[in-house]
Structures are given as C-alpha cells and as structure tokens.
Amino acid sequence: MSRLSLRGISKSFGAIQALSDVSLDIAPGEVLGLMGDNGAGKSTLVKIVAGNFRPSQGAMSIDGDQVDFHKPLDAQRGGVEVVYQDLALCDNLTAASNVFLGREPRRSLAGIPILDYATMHRRSAELFASLKSETRPRDLVKRMSGGQRQAVAIARTLLSNAKIVLMDEPTAAISVRQVAEVLDLIHRLSDQGISVVLISHRMPDVFAVCSRIAVLRRGKLVCSKPANDSSPEEVTGLITGAIEMA
Amino acid sequence: MTTLEQAIGHSQHHSPVSRIVNSQIFWVFAAAVLACIALSLLTDSFATQRNLFNVTRNFAFVGLIAIGMTTVIASGGIDLSVGSSVVLAAMVISVLMSAGHPFWISAIVALAAAAAVGFTNGILIAYVGMPAFVVTLGMLSAARSLAMVLSNNKMIWEFGPDHDLLLWIGGGSTLGLPHPIYALALLTIVMSVVYRWTRWGQYVFAIGGNEHAATLTGIPVKRIKVSIYMFSALTAGVAGILMAGWLGSVTTNLGQAMELTVIAAAVIGGANLAGGQGTALGAVIGALLIEVIRNSLILLGISTFWQGMFIGCFIIIAVAFDRIRNLGSQD
Questions:
Q1: pLDDT at site B89
Q2: Domains contained in chain B, number
Q3: Are A26 and A2 in contact (CB under 8 A)?
C-alpha cells in the first residue's frame, strides 16, 4: 500500500492552471525527488499535501485512508511534517527547546505546571542519536552549523511520529560538507520508514539520496520512475521539455 | 575516540565562573558596586541610612516596570506607554479613594485600568498588526490625557478613609526595608522562574527569537503578545499605586518620561532590543545602576541637568557592548 497516494490532483488559481491531473504514489520509506523548473507546480503540489491549499479536483490518501486537509494543522495531525527552507528555528533557544517548541512536556511542582527539561533533553539526545548527528540538546541554535540546524528541524518532525516529511530545498544555501550531512539525515528518515518528498534544483543531491524521481512541467507530471532507471541527462531534458515524457 | 552518544551528552558550556564573568549583568553590577564604593569614600552623605533608604525605594519603581519592559523587549516589542500607565493607575486609585472608597477596591480598579491600556496596546499590535512603537506612542499620549480628564488636572493629596493605609503600603517600611523593595524582590523571583520554567516564558522568548517559526509550531502568538503588553502595563500600574502612597500626593506629571529610564534599565541589564534576550535580574540591576548614578550626580553637586546625558550615554554604551560581543562570537 502506498504511504501517500495522489489521484488526479488539479489546482487552478483563477484562470491559471497550476496543476493538472497529477497522480503520484509514494511508498513507505521512499525518498521522492520532486523536480521541475520555477513555476512548474512543485510548490503548489507540496502546499496541497501540507494543507496550505485544497486541490480544485482530485483525491489524496495516506496509508489508504482518504484525507482532506483544510489547514496545515490538519496535515500535521495526519502525519505530514514540513521542513521549511529557512528551517523555522529560534536561534536564541537551545536545540531541545526548538525540538519541543509548541509541545513542551510539563511536570507538576506543588500543583504548578513547569517545563520538564529533563525529559526534553533526554528525548532530544535520543532523536539526535537516531539521526547520527552530533548535536547537543543544551546548545543554542545560533552557535550551530548548518547541518546541526537541519538535524534540529528534522528531529522536530521525528518527535511527532511523522509519516511523510516534505523538504523544500534543504541543501540550497549550505556548504558542501553540510550537504553530505543533510543527505545522511534524509537516509536516516527513510531507514525509519518515513517517506520523504525532497524538492531540489541540485541534480547530484537528488540522485544521491532519492529512490524515485518525479518531474513536473507546466503543472503536468511528465515522469515518475525509480532513480536507477533514469539519469541526470534525462531529467534535465524532462524539465526543459527537450524530452516530452518518460 | 568519543562515541556519538558521548559527543551528544557532552556539554559545551563553560564553567560557572566564566559564564558569570561573560554576562553583561555581572559587569553592570560591578559598575554599580564600584560607584557605591566610590561615593561612600567621596561623600559623607551617600552611605547614610536615610540616603540608602531613598535610593533603594526610588530604584524599586523603575525596577518593577523594567521587568515588565524586559518581557516586552524579549518578545521583540517595545512599550512606550508605561509612564502614562503609571499616572493613570495612580490617578484612578487616588480619585476613587478620595471619593471615600476603600483601598483594595480602588487598587483593583486602578490595576484594571492599567490592564485595559495593555490590552488595547496588545490587540492593536497583535491582531491589527500595527507596529508596537506607533501604538504605544499613541497610548503614551492618550492614557496621560485620560488621567488629566479624570482628575481635572488637579493634585490629589487626600485619600479618604484608607489614607494611612495607602501611605503605609507605598511609603512605609518593614524590618528596615521600604515596601516597594519587597514588591520588586517578589516580582524578580517570580518572573525569573516564569521565564525559565513555564511555557509562557518560553514562548515570550521564542516569539522574540523568530516570530514566524513560533507561529508555524502552533504557538498562540497573538494571544501571548496581548498578555505580554498587559503584563507590562500591570507592572506600571503596581508602580503607580506604590508611588501614590510614597509621594502622598498625585499630580498628572507623575511618571513623565519614565519610559526612557525604564527602557534604559532593561537594555543596560541585557535585554536585546532585537528580541529574544533579557532577564528579570538584569532589569533590576540596570535600574540599580541608573539610580546610583542619578543619586551620585546629586550628592556630588553636579547639576541634575546632566542626568539625561549620563543615562543616554549608558544606553548607547550598553548597546555598543552588545554589538562588540556579537562580533566576537561570529568567528
């Protein structure tokens, strides 16, 4: 059974047809590279899955259950987490505080609920260990490397037992060494059975980490095939339109 | 060879001593202590019981509001209306008490008036989306004008049947310490705990650090912002009530230009105007330094006209120190 199944998804904004009849399946633990030129509809598709937009037509299901997200919170409850390009972290707080932001565990001290830092630090340390990232729960995020910051953002999605993680250009603005760290993190998510949708313009990253490649052109899905059966040349052709469909 | 678990468990924090020496609060406190020692040696009048009593009481009012201001600044905002909240609360309580109402009821109404000022600020800032600077600048004018309307711009010095109680609460002392100091100590301890150990405190700093991120994680950012401005106005309201009792009379210029001193205290105490940083203890120590300087100018016979110059320079120096420290930590 597919983790995420899209059937005939279309989306129009007034006269503009952003997506037309997109059908796509992602298996559990699969890493899908979603590619396409600017304006091809990648962001629109991701925003539909994340609950920011509702599709004009079509159906979506997660683990076989039909879902209909009206707002991002619905998608979160349905197991969809988004890692934003700017990572949405608070630099002035510690790694553990960021991981637990908005859902801090509390314990009672003489009837007054106080933050349970012990649990937050222990759980974050476990999550960082499961990501094989050398990130310390008590360190401030502003003192961290790009890779560690990614680990914090990804640990946040693990905390909520996500089924699908959407990542928008996670490797766009970081150094080569950190790119390798991020790609490792994506492998760890996949190892834990979490499906990842990776939007990226960087062809080497996509082929390094993705098991399946999907290409959008002018709102239409022109390719969805295992990465092993494709090549950077073919994908480039599909993005530009030199190759009509694959 | 260290394993991954050891690396994660390892703390990068420095020793407690170096952490203290690296903090702005430590240096501000050291400056205040140095100033006190110098004054004790240079003048006969500083280390007298009477003068110290005055210093501690004066700085308590600024310190109380500086804790409220630190909360606002830590969330990335600013509240210019605190001086006007002071006079409004003081005027409401004195008008009600002089009309014969008991202290407690009048105090509650006065605090409600201050809370209403903060609520209005918060709604306009959080829900209407207006800049805090503009909203609270308008409120600075509006709330003081309201106090003038309420009192018909007259001085009030008779507070009805509970007259002595008000004067005792604001101006009296217990065990040698003036009452406003007790209020300040209590608020400092409570807010230090609240900042560190409650969700509300955590969210104040999260909003100041990255408001967009705070919204994305589902924190009720708007509601929290309203509560922050209400808290700031309430600290001003408490200070206003205590000041009414301390002075024994209330005029409509009470608390005028106090917002500058309060913001200075917060910033000198380590609150970052860009948001995300600040401590209750820092606000108190910032207020202490300002009051010691103000007092020393008087005792050394320097014209009080120089006060503004000193406070202004201290704000700029405090911000400059912050910049230098940030430059240092970037590499």
A1: 94
A2: 1
A3: yes
**Quick one: pLDDT at residue B202?**
92
A21 and A2 both lie in a single domain = yes
For residue B280, the tally of other CB atoms under 10 A from its CB is 25
> If you measure CA to CA, which chain A residue comes closest to B10?
A136
- The DSSP bridge partners found for residue B185 are none
Specify whether A59 is located in the same domain as A179: yes
CATH number, residue A169:
3.40.50.300
At residue B319, does pLDDT exceed 80?
Answer: no
A162 touches chain B (CB under 8 A): no
- List pLDDT tens digits, range A114-132: 888 889 899 898 888 888 8
CB pair distance less than 8 Å for A113 and B198: yes
Q: Is B298 inside a domain boundary?
A: yes
In angstroms, the CA B35 to CA B29 distance is: 10
| CA-based R_g, chain B, Å | 21
The pTM of the full predicted model, rounded to 2 decimals, is 0.84
Say whether A113 and B5 touch across the interface (CB within 8 A): no
Q: Is B86 within the bounds of a domain?
A: yes
Tokens (6 digits) for B318? 């405090």
Q: ipTM value, please give it.
A: 0.80
Q: Say which residues have a Cβ less than 8 Å from residue B48's Cβ, sequence separation at least 6.
A: none
CB atoms within 10 A of CB B65: 33
Chain center to CA of B70: 7
